[in-house]
Amino acid sequence: MNPETFQQLGLRPPLLEALSEVGYETPSPIQAACIPHLLAGTDLLGEAQTGTGKTAAFALPLLERLDLAQRNPQVLVLTPTRELAVQVAEAFQRYAKHLPGFHVLPIYGGQSMVVQLRQLNRGVHVVVGTPGRVMDHIERRSLNLDSLSALVLDEADEMLRMGFIDDVEWILEHTPAERQTALFSATMPERIRRIAHRYLHAPQEVKIQASTATVLSTRQRYCQVNAQHKLDALTRILEVEDAFDAAIIFVRTKTATVELAEKLEARGYAAAALNGDMTQQLRERVVEQLKRGALDIVVATDVAARGLDVPRITHVINYDIPYDTEAYVHRIGRTGRAGRSGTAILFVTTREMHMLKIIERATRQKIEALPLPSRQAVADRRVAQFRRQVEEVIAAEDLAFFNDVIADLEGQANASLHEIAAALAFLAQRERPLQLEPASGPDIAELNRPRSERPPRENREQILGRRREVAEGKLVRYRIAVGREQQVTPKDIVGAIANEAGIESRHIGQINLYEDYSTVELPADLDSQTLNILRRLRVRQHPLSIQLAGENEAPEHASRGRPGPRAPKAAPRWTKDAATPERSKAPRTFPPRGRGPDRPPKPARPRKPSGNK
Ligand code: AMP
After folding, report:
1. Average pLDDT of the chain?
2. pTM value?
3. What is the CB neighbour count within 10 angstroms for residue 534?
4. Which residue's CA is the closest to the ligand 1 atom numbered 11?
5. Quick one: 363 and 385 in the same domain?
6. How many CB atoms lie within 10 A of CB 260?
C-alpha cells in the first residue's frame, strides 16, 4: 500500500514539523518507495531523475537514523557538482531544522580548505561533497569516516559522464564496508550497474512508475525556463495564449500555491490558491468560483486538485514539474473535459529535461516545444487588443461629448490630432503598458532559449577584451592531455574545472581542441591549492596532466610564485603537433563561456505593479 502521509512513513515529529513548514503535503512516489527501505537500513538502487523528490527520499530516512550525540560524519553524500552539493546540504538543513545541534557540511573544490578543515574539526553529522574534494580530505585524514553509517551516490550517471567515477570507486573502497549505501541515477548505464552490483549489498531497486496513458484531447507543450524566470514566463504565456478561458496551475507545495496566487492577483488576474491546508468548505468555494467565472486561475497542489472537474478549464500549467508520469496524466486530465480540447503547458528547467523524455515515452506523444514569448510578442498582443478596444468604442459608443472636448483641446493646445490621440493612448495604457519595460537587460525569452538556438555569445568587443587579457598576462594558456581522441567536449572541460577547481566558468578563456590534447586559458593568478586540484583533475576518466603551454611547466612550478604574465609568445613546444597536417587540421576553437552554470543568477527585473483591471 502506498503511504499517503509522512506520518505513515514513520518519521519522527521534528522532521514532520519541518516538512509541514516547507509546505510538503504528501510524500512523492519515489519518497514513498525509498523511505521505508532506507529506514530499515537496506541498500538502495534508485532510478530517479531530478524533480522526483529524490533528495528528500534519502535525506529524510538518513536524518531519522542519525545519532546527534555522535559528532563524527555518519552520512556522506557524493554529488557531481558543487551546485548540487550545496543544494543537497541545504535540503538536509531544511529538513533538520528542528533537530537540535545538527550539522551538515558541503565540501567542494575551490572553497577554502582552511574553512572546511575548521568545520570538520568542529564536528558534523552529514558531509555532502564532490568526489575530488572528498578524496583530498580522506587522503589528508581530515575526514574521518570511521563512524560512517550511510553513503549516498547522487546523480551517479552524471559523475560517470564528468569523469569522476574512478574517484567515486576509490571513495567507496575507503569507507567502512558495513555502511548502508544508496545509489541514485537518472539512467543506468552498464558501468553504474556494475558499481551497484559490486558495492551495494542486496539492494532494493526503486524506479518511478512509467504508467502509459493516452491523452488525446489535450495539446501538450513544454517551455524550457529557468526557475527564476517562471513567473515572468507564466504571465507572458497567459497573455499571448489564444482561447484562454480558465487555468489550473500546478505547483509542489502549499506555500507555493498561496505565493503564486498572490503574485498573479497583484498582476491583475482573478486567481486563488487551492491546497490541503484549506478546509473542505473553503476548497469547495474556490472550485465553485472557478466554475462560475468569478475566478480564472486556481493554483493548486496535486492532492487538492484531485477529482476537480471544471469544464471551462482551457489550460493546465505544470509550473513545477510533476513527480512522475502518473501525476502528469492526472494533472492534464483537468482540461479537455466534456469533449472539449484543452492545452497543457509544462515548465521544464534544464536539469529536468530527462523527465520530459520519460513523460513523452509514457504518454506515447511528442510534447511540442513552446518558445517563450518575447517582449515584442507580448507588446504586439497588447497593441492589437488596444486597437480592438478603440475600434469597438468608435463603433458602439456615443462620443459626441468627447468629440467636443477634443475639438477644444486641438484649438487650445498647440498640438495635432495625432499628438492628442497619442497622449490619450499613453494615459490609457498606464495601468497595463503597451510596451514591456524598456530593455534593461536581456529578454527572458532570450535567456531561456536552449543554448543551441542562442546567437553566438562572444562579440568582437569581447574577443578583443579576452585577447587583451592574454596579452596582459591575466589569462595564461595551459595544455591538457585530453583532446578529440578522448571524446571530451569543451563543456566537459569547463564542467570539471569549474566544479572541482572552483574557477568560475566566466573566468575560463578560450579552449582549443586538438587530436590528443587541448589548450585552455585560465586566470594567471591561481593559488597553489587550485593548481593542486587542477593537477589531479580527470575528465572523462582521463587525467588532465595540466601544464603551462609551451614551457613544459607543471602548474605547481607556477604556484611557487605566479604563472606570471607569460602568454606564450614563441611557438609553444607542442605546436609541432598542431602543425602536423594529418594529426590536427585546424583546431576546434571554443570561445570563453558567456554564461556558465556557476554564474550568479541575474536579479529579477524590476516590475511596475500593474493594477487590477
Ligand atoms: P529533487 O527531485 O530532490 O531535486 O526535488 C525537486 C523539488 O521538489 C524540490 O524543490 C523539493 O523541495 C520538492 N519536493 C520534494 N519532495 C516534495 C514533496 N513531498 N512535496 C512537495 N515538494 C517536494
Report:
1. 83
2. 0.66
3. 26
4. 53
5. no
6. 21
